[in-house]
């Protein structure tokens, strides 16, 4: 099986390549690229059996690359690999054979390879996969207690009680405690479903803050609302839809 990996993070490309090599020596990586334009060029030129596409890449994103590839008469299967599950439905609408969420688990990747090997016998049409994804996205999630976070090359495990706020920044979410900052890949939308609404509030599309960490709320001369925290960080914006959280009782 000839494979192209497209992801804008070199370490993740290396990690995925190593996992594929460990699964089988018959999996040949013919190209590894860092943006959508290169992915489209290499897939068109090399016509691999499968391309692993990151969704969020500079220039053309993975969904746009898939859309362009679908216009061509190629036999290349598409697998999306991303830190977010928001685009799962769009991925299958673009003809993806599978959808992997980072960090990639080797056993889950093995299932993807088995699915690719039997692609001509796909047991579930995309319409049914889309329905299944919608059901999974609305199902109840267990409350968040322990969080695996990254700092440099190290992985730490912290209790949710230590967290003061979560802030989405590009592809990552920064987890802020009283003493340090860490990185995770879980999107805020998913975190909201796992955090107690009596403990945390989402005050902006990019910010979830612990209620007890809020010291005061203020407005600027334009009427925009901001939260100041007990940690003395820069003011955090409050979206218009979240301002009702701070109405006087």
From TrEMBL:
<dbReference type="InterPro" id="IPR011006">
    <property type="entry name" value="CheY-like_superfamily"/>
</dbReference>
<feature type="domain" description="HTH LytTR-type">
    <location>
        <begin position="147"/>
        <end position="249"/>
    </location>
</feature>
<keyword id="KW-0902">Two-component regulatory system</keyword>
<feature type="modified residue" description="4-aspartylphosphate">
    <location>
        <position position="54"/>
    </location>
</feature>
<keyword id="KW-0597">Phosphoprotein</keyword>
<dbReference type="GO" id="GO:0005829">
    <property type="term" value="C:cytosol"/>
</dbReference>
<keyword id="KW-0238">DNA-binding</keyword>
<dbReference type="InterPro" id="IPR001789">
    <property type="entry name" value="Sig_transdc_resp-reg_receiver"/>
</dbReference>
<dbReference type="GO" id="GO:0000976">
    <property type="term" value="F:transcription cis-regulatory region binding"/>
</dbReference>
<feature type="domain" description="Response regulatory">
    <location>
        <begin position="2"/>
        <end position="117"/>
    </location>
</feature>
<dbReference type="Pfam" id="PF04397">
    <property type="entry name" value="LytTR"/>
</dbReference>
<protein>
    <submittedName>
        <fullName>Two-component system response regulator</fullName>
    </submittedName>
</protein>
<dbReference type="InterPro" id="IPR039420">
    <property type="entry name" value="WalR-like"/>
</dbReference>
<dbReference type="GO" id="GO:0000156">
    <property type="term" value="F:phosphorelay response regulator activity"/>
</dbReference>
<dbReference type="GO" id="GO:0006355">
    <property type="term" value="P:regulation of DNA-templated transcription"/>
</dbReference>
<dbReference type="InterPro" id="IPR007492">
    <property type="entry name" value="LytTR_DNA-bd_dom"/>
</dbReference>
<dbReference type="Pfam" id="PF00072">
    <property type="entry name" value="Response_reg"/>
</dbReference>
<dbReference type="GO" id="GO:0032993">
    <property type="term" value="C:protein-DNA complex"/>
</dbReference>
